Automatic annotation (TrEMBL):
It comes from the Bacteria. InterPro entries: Alpha/beta_knot_MTases (IPR029028), MRM3-like_sub_bind (IPR053888), Ribosomal_eL30-like_sf (IPR029064), rRNA_Methyltransferase (IPR051259), SpoU_MeTrfase (IPR001537), SpoU_subst-bd (IPR013123), tRNA_m1G_MTases_N (IPR029026). One of its GO terms (biological process) is RNA processing. Gene3D superfamilies: 3.30.1330.30, 3.40.1280.10. Residues 33-106 form the RNA 2-O ribose methyltransferase substrate binding domain. PANTHER family: RRNA METHYLTRANSFERASE 3, RRNA METHYLTRANSFERASE 3, MITOCHONDRIAL. SMART domains: SpoU_sub_bind. This is TrmH family RNA methyltransferase. Belongs to the class IV-like SAM-binding methyltransferase superfamily. RNA methyltransferase TrmH family. GO terms for molecular function: RNA binding; RNA methyltransferase activity. It comes from Thermonema lapsum. One of its GO terms (cellular component) is cytoplasm. Keywords: Methyltransferase, Transferase.
Amino acid sequence: MPYPLIQSAQNPKIKRLYQLHKSHARKQEGLILIEGKKEISLALQAGIQLESLFFYPRYTPESWIESLPLDKQKVRIFEVSEEAMQKIAYRPESGVVATAPPPVRRLDDLQLPSNPLLIVVEAIEKPGNLGAILRTADAASVDALIVCDPQTDLFNPNVIRSSLGCIFTVPTICAPSETVIAWLKKRGVCIYTAALNASIPYHTADFTRPSALVFGTEATGLSDTWLQAADQNIIIPMSGYIDSLNVSNACAIITFEAKRQRGFKR
């Protein structure tokens, strides 16, 4: 079916989408920006209800739009020119951008199995690192990612893009560190903190029991709040000149060791 065509990058709707790249505009509008076919497909699979969708037919054919499980009466769909797509998309070749209300997720809403494996990150600053951690969490099928005291918007378009949409496939919660620690201890989840001091090699830890793998920033590591709450500090042995890895790499290594110990069961 034909959709309304927006030619100009100065169109008010295009200007509105451009503004949604900024955190204050997303908060004011109560919307997130989702770019890319894979990312939009995963959002829809997760039950996200789109508000609007803009596509450039050279890269995103109308047939793909028609294949989406959308309520065409509720979602406003527009074809846009190349000029307009270049304004609203970080990667114009993705060919499609959508807006949606962000999902509301709370710690107490998490439904955990009897032997959960969780990833916890504290004060993560870089959207690319958070996106990479989300990809690890999805690939390892962890039960949740808990983001404590974040320094970046969880639904920053860069997080959505760098996670390839895994922000929608992994139960992801924001909460203060003290709240999360109390929640974990109440549920008997063992807290393993990645730290440089007083630590055992990560592969010697027992991750077969209910486990939370906790990571801090590269600059300062984890706060004393987490280090004092830990059941065990763990470390990845370094054989070179540096003493630590990028947080997303460290997370991947330790998470997949935990999965190995668990027989890679989902």
